[in-house]
Write a structure and sequence with these properties.
By secondary structure, the protein is of the alpha/beta class. The protein has one domain: L-arginine/glycine Amidinotransferase, Chain A, CATH 3.75.10.10. The protein contains ten helices and 19 strands. The chain has helices spanning about 35-50, 65-70, 85-90, 110-115, 120-135, 160-165, 175-185, 230-245, 295-305, 320, and strands at about 5-10, 15-20, 55-60, 75-80, 95, 100-110, 135-145, 150, 155-160, 190-195, 210-215, 220-225, 255-260, 265, 270, 280, 285-290, 310-315, 330-335. The protein has a four-stranded mixed β-sheet, with helices on both faces. The chain has a four-stranded mixed β-sheet with strand order 4-3-2-19, covered by helices on one side. Strand 16 and strand 17 (about 285-290) form a beta hairpin. The longest helix is centred in the N-terminal third of the chain and has 16 residues, at about 35-50. The protein starts with 6 loop residues before the first strand and ends in a 6-residue tail after the last strand.
């Protein structure tokens, strides 16, 4: 255990040492018949990121051959047992101190409020990964998934009440107690609480489907302009909250709106589609698209304007979305540090 007091969570757009992704596990999939298609979708993301920075893929032993066959030879495979393939949520949140030393936060993980029975291997992934890397670890006492938080790297954190205050995560913790733990672990001074995430999101409103920081006190927010849509009221409420908020240095936030894609159902279930669920890499952005040319193109144009120095790579994310997540959900960045390799 380390003294976490001098560490803080960098912004995602700061330089990465590498990206971590966990390989799909057929037995845990919602639709096991789509296993090959989902693996192909993961491999496409792995290979796209390899063009920008190193990638380590966490793989169960019996899937090593499959992952090696499908992924770029540039990708490193690391044999660590896991139950499911959402590295953002059960992997470490990396923090860094003023000396440039990187450490990892090991949050407690309970499969999004015990929605799935098998999560005990996932709850051990962070400890095993950090041990393999030789990176110091700090163990937190709260249940938290990485997709529920987003840092601007300058003292502010975004999250939603729907997720972090949900009784299926931390039933005996109050909002002030959770805030205090986040500030201690992540080195933030201010927490911006949005109300809800997207309709139908199994994660109970993860922020990485809803809103994220961008440089210079900007926030990207997915909005819904259809008053009959389930996301209309919540996106309007979140926009109004952000209008009243500031960053940690009391600067007003510049809200950049991105219109949501048209609703899509799979086997009668509405999918959670989000353009906010993109992933920033060194020199690029890996962005999900959903076959809706008008909104796909408009979202890509916004990201090119906000991040003009980065190449925006668009990937069809439907195979992953049918399993309940997106590109950001399967990735976890490790920032550059003096003790990383």
């Amino acid at each position: 255990m380390i003294d976490i007091a001098n560490y803080s969570m960098p912004a995602e757009w700061e330089e990465h040492q590498r990206t971590f992704i966990a390989w799909p596990v057929k037995s845990s999939m919602l639709y096991a018949e789509n296993h090959e298609t989902v693996c192909a979708g993961y491999a496409e993301i792995v290979n796209a990121i390899c063009e920008f920075e190193p990638v380590t893929v966490i793989v169960n032993h019996d899937s090593l051959e499959e992952a090696r066959r499908m992924c770029s030879p540039q990708a490193e495979l690391l044999d660590i047992p896991h139950d499911d393939a959402w590295m953002r949520d059960n992997g470490p949140t990396f923090v860094r101190n003023a000396n440039g030393e990187v450490a990892g936060i090991d949050w407690r993980f309970n499969a999004w409020g015990e929605k799935h029975p098998d999560f005990h291997l996932d709850d051990m992934v962070t400890e095993r990964l950090l041990d393999a890397l030789g990176i110091p670890m700090y163990g937190s006492n709260i249940v938290l998934e990485g997709g529920s938080i987003h840092s601007d790297g300058s003292g502010a954190l975004l999250t939603t009440e729907q997720c972090l205050l949900n009784k299926n995560r931390n039933p005996y913790s109050t909002k002030p107690e959770i805030e205090a733990e986040l500030k201690k672990c992540l080195g933030v001074k201010k927490i911006i609480w949005l109300s809800k995430g997207l309709a139908g999101d199994e994660t109970d409103g993860h922020i990485d489907n809803t809103a994220c920081f961008a440089p210079a006190s900007r926030i990207l927010l997915q909005v819904c302009n259809d008053m009959n849509d389930l996301n209309y009221n919540s996106s309007l409420e979140n926009k109004n909250i952000l209008k009243r908020e500031t960053d940690a240095d009391t600067r007003k936030l510049d809200i950049i709106e991105i219109e949501q894609p048209p609703p899509v159902k799979y086997k009668a279930k509405r999918l959670t589609l989000s353009y906010i669920n993109f992933y920033i890499v060194n020199g690029g952005i890996i962005m999900p698209v959903f076959g809706a040319s008008k909104t796909d193109d408009a979202a890509a144009a916004v990201l090119r304007e906000i991040f003009p120095e980065r190449k925006v790579v668009t990937l069809d994310a439907m195979s992953i979305v049918t399993e309940g997540g997106g590109i950001h959900c399967i990735t976890q960045q490790m920032p550059k540090g003096v003790n990383t390799r």
